[in-house]
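Replying to the earlier thread about multi-chain prediction with a worked example.

Input:
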Amino acid sequence: MPTDAAPDIVRLANVRFAWPGRGAFTLAVDGFALPARQRLLLIGPSGSGKSTFLSLLCGILAPQSGSIEVLGTDITKLGASARDGFRAEHFGIIFQMFNLLPYGTVIDNVLLPLRFAPGRRKRATAKLSAEDEAARLLDRLGIEASLARGRSAANLSVGQQQRVAAARALIGAPELIVADEPTSALDRNRQAAFLDLLFNEAGAAGATLIMVSHDESLAGRFDRVVRLDEIARVGEGAPA
Amino acid sequence: MIVLRLALQSLMNRWVTALLTVLAIAFSIALLLGVEKVRTGARQSFADTISGTDLIVGARSGSLNLLLYSVFRIGNATNNITWASYKDLAGRPEIAWIVPLSLGDSHRGFRVLGTTPDYFTHYKYRRGHGLEFAAGKPFADLFDAVIGADVAAALGYKIGDPIVIGHGLGTVSFVAHDDKPFRVSGILKKTGTPVDRTVFVSLEAIEAIHVDWQSGARVPGQSVSADEVRRMNLEPKAITAALIGLKSKLATFRLQRAINEYRDEPLSAILPGAALQELWGLVGTAETALQAVSAMVVATALLGMVTMVLTTLNERRREMAILRSVGARPRTILGLLMAEAGVLTVLGILLGIALLYGALLIAQPYVDRVYGLHLAIDPPGLNEWLTLGAIALAGCVAGLLPALRAYRLSLADGMTVRT
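Result:
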């Protein structure tokens, strides 16, 4: 449970967003805050504006009005390319599936964010070389060195791909891990095992975790559970 | 550069389509450069055909016509020059040498040129090369003939072989000067000019075989034997044209005007270089058409490349979303796709150059032998490099089309991974 001392790592206020030229789909968030190091489960069925919410949070989309503070920076005040840089430095993102560039090697896939985030590169290479740090993370997430070296990512199973994606999100210890239904492609046993690994590593790195899912049965494992429709209002029109 | 490495790996992942695209560009480039090579080769061959001759004189006609029949053995003279006029010209003080040419007969498809042995010393080609004998020597006897390298090769003639000259210019002559056969006295070395396809005899010989002919047919019941003809006066009555060399180039235009205004007979004098320029003007349209066609082929290949990159975009939206999620700017994605188009174009250009020079190495001796066209194997000139640079640039710019589309897609997709 959050302590009162923990500062908010994410704070949204009066956010209004409308897709340009896409009917009247709008998303409004009056207020939302998340303390550091929390593990948040965001429950949202598809069509609830989940993708739009995450895109706003990660700074890929900019709202028409309102503020989105991450680590004390209002990212709506940043230019588009500064937001991209900010995302690279402070966010680790895991998608539902197809997380990896299939033709790249496993190691290259894990190292990819460091190319865009010099701060993360510095942290990742504080003790080891970037490649060794990637191998260490992969090892912790249960990907053997033989799989990691020189193999193209396309040869991995779905479960292995998700763990490589987790290693990519974790490398260089970004403050926020955002996972969009990372376990929906996995069966029950693997889901639990994947979450254990993710929680361990995120905890070890001191990262805040935001996970989106439509599966409420996972709720018991998180510090806090929020239904997206409690914090965000979706307007009329086709969802993006 | 991990992003560049991944971009190359992405390209390798699609190597079949990428290779086909590169090949299409390569062939178009090889065609473009090849057309240019043939064009310059052909011009050079034409320009190399005659050198060292200051003026060509013939009956009054267009300068192009005179050049074509006197030097290239193409077409026919409209009229002759009388021997008197020729002798008058030959006596002028500005003239260093003058070689008469008499055309109109043929031997099995090869033109027969009546001239004097001076032809073999004064006719120059390819910037001052003189004619050389591969075997034998210039004609000395009335019925001696010298043949060009192609004539010897095509008909298998050796020194001493008899040949019969046909009247007129067809491959198959229905009327032949068969009562007065010639003997091959010399064979010239290959020159890559119309000389190779010519049979040379003396002016007197041309006169001799026409002694008993009138108006292009044998006079019935009047036959002069070869021995009788030797005793006759064989001074020619007319010739077709003459090549003139001057003591001083400064006299060229003065003499040209004098000949053009010659009182006794309408004559024309031309400068070979100026007439060649006129020829370029004439064939220039065809050259431009060829260049336009090959330019269009290059444009088609580039279009194919753009199509290829565009069609892969949809399946690569995932790639874009992943790159965006790790912090790649839309501009990075724009740059990646332009770089991809650029890499494909440059690879195509390099392969195209390799293809061209490979083909040149193989085909050059054949083309030289069969068409008398010497294709120089030299590195591309400044103009070619500029053209290639422009094409590489055009490739990158063409890459803007898919790149901008990817840019828009990646902005619209945001964090959604579409598959």
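The longest strand of chain A covers residues 8-18.

Feel free to reuse this layout for your own posts.
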